């Protein structure tokens, strides 16, 4: 991922321990610095795996902030990246002045991937480690903890500038234990939160399960389409991009590329055209399928333990909620 601009500032508690202070970087990092490029890419990959909130800049009201104006100035060259990053760092220090534990290195990067440009903000903590010096002796060595982000955000500048209706182009870390940090980041971004990624992902998986059941695919086709959905979602997760319903529909059924999309729209699941994938929800999704002796069974893994139970001692499946269509057939038989 090409790195267009990057800089690292420092946040520390003041001597009286009552607020955060900013030590601004003396200059930008070199754009072709391989170490900085590697650091930004590593942090970006870490960010992609974390639970996030999504939304867009608030246009007016108390939620709106100065970041939009700063970005506009930066985009037209009215201020440079150093000025933009310093303004962001100063405002973040004010928003989090009581959260002294967030002290660390504040990295800001302007990146490009393909046709998409993004602004990435991440607070990185330093930890003590062990290294080997030139005389092959073990010595203390400070290291950046790139695997445990607690405060970070990303703005898809390309989507923001295109003014796509309903686009969720701002994301931020939304860890359960970091509510105050998330609130501070939302205030800095001046955004209004929109899509609930876990809920939207769950609804998408429910829509997919309904589609598989309605189309009555055989076991092999069902597994293939499940794998296709999960692979696509994980790839978008790795790239840090949302899933697009139309693109997913074409992958799920290449022979009828609009079939799944039409199923979602006709059944009115209320899904957004673009859905940020939620890693935790995806990791719990799997379909169990089996066929033997004239019996074919297929169900989502999340149903096991609730509406479906497996008795291993007697090798029995207990279905507590019989599907309506099957129930009607059984009733008619009687």
TrEMBL record:
<keyword id="KW-0963">Cytoplasm</keyword>
<dbReference type="InterPro" id="IPR007358">
    <property type="entry name" value="Nucleoid_associated_NdpA"/>
</dbReference>
<dbReference type="Pfam" id="PF04245">
    <property type="entry name" value="NA37"/>
</dbReference>
<comment type="similarity">
    <text>Belongs to the YejK family.</text>
</comment>
<protein>
    <submittedName>
        <fullName>Nucleoid-associated protein YejK</fullName>
    </submittedName>
</protein>
